[in-house]
Amino acid sequence: MNEKRKKIALFGSNFTGRYKRSLCRAFTIAAEEFGVDLVVFNTYGQIGTRNGFREDYETGILDYMDLDLFDGIVFDGDGYSVEEMSESIERRLRKVKCPVISVSGHIDGFYNIEFDDAGGLRSMVEHFVEHHKFTRIAYFAGPSDHPDARSRLSEFRSVMREHGLPENGVGMFEGNFWYDKGMEAARYFLALPERPEAIVCANDYMAISLINALRKYGLKVPEDIAVSGYDGTIEGKEFLPHLSSVTRERTELARKAMQLLVNLSEGKEEEIDLHVYPAPVFSQSCGCEPLEYEHVLETVARVHEEARMISTAVYESESAMVKLNKVDSIRRMEAVFAEDSVNFGEYSSFFMMVHTDQNGVPAYDSSFTSPSGRFVPVIWIDKNKEYSGSPHSFNSSLFIPRSNSDRCHVYYIMSVHCADKLFGYSVVEMTGKDIFNEFHNVWIHNLGLTLSALEKNDHINKLINKLEGLSITDDLTGMLNRRGFDDRSRNAIADFSEKKNVCTMVIDIDGLKAINDEYGHHEGDRAIKALAEIIRRSCDSGEIAGRAGGDEFYIFASDYSETRLKRFREHMEEYTAEYNKTNKKGYKLDFSFGAYITETDGFGRLEDFLKISDERMYEQKMSKPGRRR
Fold first, then answer.
1. Which element (helix H / strand E) includes 593?
2. Is the pLDDT of residue 52 over 50?
3. What is the distance between the alpha carbons of residues 462 and 366, in angstroms, rounded to a whole number?
4. From the CB of residue 574, how many other CB atoms can be counted at a distance below 10 Å?
5. Are the C-beta atoms of residues 264 and 274 closer than 8 Å to each other?
6. Angle at which helices 117-126 and 147-162 cross, to 10°
7. What structural domains and CATH numbers belong to the chain?
8. How many CB atoms lie within 10 A of CB 474?
């Protein structure tokens, strides 16, 4: 973002749906007209319809973003299919310093821009009564718990009473603002004692579903029954017959919102509540316009083209999903996205940021603890080279990279999460005025799944390494055990490409049995650990050391000489003397030592060398006066 330009945020849900796309386009146009940067926070809400589930981590990203960077915020609470999500965002917005405008219903404490739904519904009902002279009018209502539905129903009843008609018309059926109640509503209306001349619907989707149902009963619209909708959706304009409806002027709404926020940011006083007045569109479904068959052909052609594009996008998504499933690193994930992200619209930049913890560990690493509030980029695509610096210099307090261009920018932000973990967020900037399509959401879901898979794979690999470490590590001393020592030493010999001098050593504690008998086995273990540490300190030339078992230790070294062996032995004696000076027990730590240096190639047998070393160690032990087992 440009730090000097005013910044406006828009919060909402399901912006990729056709009903909400026009709202995003309207705000994009208004942002350009007013010369501001626009940041759109979009959420899924609920995914799916029949067996849908809610996303619980979408709003959590707001806890880590400084919303006080904005000069104003617009809140569209109407699109959230999960009520708690809308309430959560509303609570968060109440804490910001900048002014907040609600554009989908009155909220105390916010500025409000409201549609005059009552006036729009009134104009449609009066059109049926006064222009078409209908008296048998029915009403297909929205859900009774929705404020828009209640407002429209109240106005329907008021207009009917004013014209001396029954306030509920010849019948009223409650729908849900969606397509799935059309057949049930048609059965109800056609079973009434008086068949309606017209049916007023509380929104376009219910009107479309009702018209389709009436067709199945052999009835024509508007010849047999006139039908109207509400909201002026794209679907209603493309449907045949075109819906008579009441359009919500979103461009006017966006311009009023931008003007209000710009004025408030400049210290100007403004009214708390403003209104946008909808306009009725009297079209084919009420009989005011004839059906134009040339336009029908254009609509069919456009629908076929959209279907073809959707099919292609599905194929591209399937391919991308398979490729993402094979991803084994963050860089490969970025490469797959850059190569295959062609199905959600043209974009100029895409960034994906992930949480880091206090130690800088990213959220897809299984060592990640908890979010620190900082983010790092893991996908950085800047097609037009408009963003200064590099991914490594990204300042996470900005949450959007700083642009070095003078033009206005519109960004869409979405949470990147999977199941029970929030990884971070994505930022995309489209090249045109329209929002991305639904396939962008598919990408975000799959990126979240890929991050989750990388995290799980990392955890599994670390667990395997840990288990492998445990299988070759001695529990008491932390050194290699006999298996670990043998494996590493034999591998070292097998790697020889020419003959080399090698050395094997066998070291055994003197008098361990006496220590155990007199001081207890815990003291015997302490003596074993002390000698193990002395051996570790003495290994300074690439020696491989391990505990063979009991009080016996093995050492293997390549490229060795008598000089190195002498230095190793001197270090052992020096460190043992240091230990004995500080040991307050009544015994002295001592050891027997046997070594063997020989030349070998890659086929040398480790056990042969160790056997000679062991014999020499035993000879030394037996030669000591007053020796103890």
1. strand 591-600
2. no
3. 9
4. 13
5. no
6. 40
7. 7-98+296-458 (3.30.450), 115-268+276-291 (3.40.50.2300), 482-623 (3.30.70.270)
8. 21
